[in-house]
Design goal:
2 domains; Helix Hairpins; alpha+beta; single chain; elongated; 33% helix; Cyt_c_oxidase_su2_TM_dom; five-stranded mixed sheet
Length: 230
Amino acid sequence: MAHPSQLGFQDAASPVMEELLHFHDHALMIVFLISTLVLYIIMAMVTTKLTNKNIIDSQEIEIIWTILPAVILILIALPSLRILYLMDEINDPHLTIKAVGHQWYWSYEYTDYEDLGFDSYMIPTQDLSPGHFRLLETDHRMVVPAESPIRMLISAEDVLHSWAVPALGVKLDAIPGRLNQTAFITSRPGVFYGQCSEICGANHSFMPIVVEAVPLEHFENWSSLMLKDA
């Protein structure tokens, strides 16, 4: 999860997020090179009185500064489109979970099970256990099996919400009357935190998301206990 004074992204916990981090570094390097070149040209023009007659009117330079930006845009667009299609791929998910946003909590339904669902509320500060994070911990975590493709169906009951978990590279709007779909695979067991990312009212800041990825055997034990309690 994020920590104070952090400048970069959270550590990737899914293959898609790893691709997004690589694309971010790729695009940032291009921006850095362009900025350096432009700054150098500006400083050269300001500090020197010399003029080269070959750059006052030159067809070759005009061709270069027309073609070069197009090439740069292609170098940015192609990997971006690749990641967009990767994020839309949902092949044979092992588990489907429906997340519904409410004011101001999330409810989860494990649609592959007959009666497995629960509401997830933020734990108030005064009730937190040692080691829990303020404003991020919930009374019921969304538990998923690690290294398995998970399909998320996301909707809302009242107003616009957004289901976002940065470490997994997932962010999708929850819209009343509409069912949006996305997928993710957790690369390792762990606990990953997120929050509603669409302003949804007075308590918008108090509807966190906690995804706990566990080995498949532990997930089966957890689901069995939840079904017995239901």
